[in-house]
Amino acid sequence: MNILLLIAVFGLIFVNGWTDAPNAIAGLVATGGMRYRSAAWMAAVCNLAGALLFCLASGRVARTVFQLADFSRAGSGGIAALCGCFLAVILFAGAAWVWGIPTSESHGLMAGILGGSLALGRADVLSWRDWQPVFAGLFLSVGLGFFCGLVLQRLLGGGFSHLSGRRLDFWQRAGAAAGAFVHGAQDGQKFAAVLWLALCLSAPSAAEWSRPPLLVVVACAAAMGAGTRCGGRRIIQKTAVEMVRIDKVQSVLSDLAGALALTVLSLLGMPASTTHTKTASMAGCASATSRSALDWRIAGQMIFAWLLTFPLCALLSFLLTKLLLRFPI
Asked: What is the pTM for the complete model shown?
């Protein structure tokens, strides 16, 4: 079971980098600002840097996730719950990727923790006080991302539209790099926390919160960076081509808006959805100008997938945990 747990957690971290890579580089690639492979490498390096810096310097998001997912008092049942949680998110994210729909592993992780906890019969997990920052972060991901995109497009869109081609390309790459860096900062903390928890549960001692050591953070960041390098062209096509055709100015401003929103949420210690934030910032930029039209049919598909994420991941985690408890590996 311990081996399965470590495989599952590294698989989840890899999938997070794999499916979230397009959110940082979607506009950059779709508008021809950088070739896909080069953009994926840049995003991987920035993800790595963001995860390292924020995990070691802050760790507030990591602490929140660690405490919610602490199944140490459940013994071997806790390991089964974590395995069920991680496998549920991997399955859901893989299925969504087949359809080219970006999903939030952060959203799925929180749901998986809830489902695993319920499978263990933990009534204390339903405490609103513990879950308040989680739900606040998930909802603010969309609202703050859209608002920042709308405001930056209206305030700065005219100024950026007069930039020369080279200067605009520079800002576009800088915006995408900033988005990837903050993605690593936000999601790096979450997954470093669950990796550290998995290692704590695999050891004889009980899991107690402490800042993840450097080696754990490096391993987490490297797995996320490797996943980011693989990327996902289907999701880029769905978000930056089919949902809304953005130009280079909107690409810059949506990246900066998403990075700004995620930085605020990370500093507040709220586990936010990087997928929701970036996609919402693109929609906000599009809605602020008449040059691009938001395809609400595609947007509706994404909203529907997001609404299904929490209940389906929670249910999958619950069922997988029950299965692993009944048939331990």
From this structure: 0.80
